[in-house]
Amino acid sequence: MQTPNNIHPKIAISACLLGQPVRFDGGHKRNRFITDELSNVLDFVPICPEIESGMGVPRPTIHLRRIDGEIRLTSSNDRKIDFTDNMLKTVRKRASELQGKISGFIVQKKSPSCGMERVTLSNAEGNTVDHKGTGLFTQHFMQLCPLVPVEEDGRLNDPVLRENFLERVYALDRWYQLNENNVTEFINFHAQHKLMLMARGKSGYASLGRIVAGVTKHNLHERRESYIAQFMNTLAQRVLRKHHYNVMQHMMGYFKQSLNNDDKKELLDVMQSYKHSQVPLITPLMLLKHYLRKHPDIYLAQQHYLKPYPDALALRAQV
Length: 319
What we know:
4-stranded parallel beta sheet; alpha/beta; 13 helices
């Protein structure tokens, strides 16, 4: 099984977050976690929807307006200067180019073109209506490429959201590597993600299992399409400590005949400490990996739950 240390998924990213001077005033929004850490494990495809839609640098500011029930992207100073149609052409072009080739997208927060949520929305006169909008480019990109995990740079400051995003990026990249005509690879993909799915609860885990259980070479493509859509939706669910604890209890069951009473007590105590927020997730997982090395199990060794992304990111030391 290929480890995430050996692969670099390709993701799209708002160019300003890489430090490129593409903002309206010629500035940037460089994010050091992205440029200093994620750049070591991911390959970036920079995108600036505004420049690609024909706007220059510097340029007037833009915002979203609700005009006659429709969301339009216009100049902040003059609603007659409308960039909506050019932006929609740009997103359709980019989505077509990147479909099936990128495993994630990091966008710049609150941007009227890129923001994923909490973007200011105005009325026709330019007065603020609310802050519940989505950037025009990102909104349509998510519709055109629904499998691709999208996250804002600001939300990456949340350790749980950051870990969830990287889990999904690497999982989708693994999916892209499958031979779409190979039934066995499809079945193995599901088998190797079972613990990751289990951490999201019983419903998605069981439903996805039923899709795989009935797969044949004749219905493979239909099942694959249904599977991956539900798989990515399931992985998007936030995993709580009690869910991780349940998965680790399940894993512990594989060692019940191998561990002595002291080892079992130590492992259970560490898992309980995690459940009660006294230690990070990495602590009980390291102990479980230790016992897995001493008492090998093929099923557990193949689980991406134990290594969903490169160790260098050290994300589970913070959740």
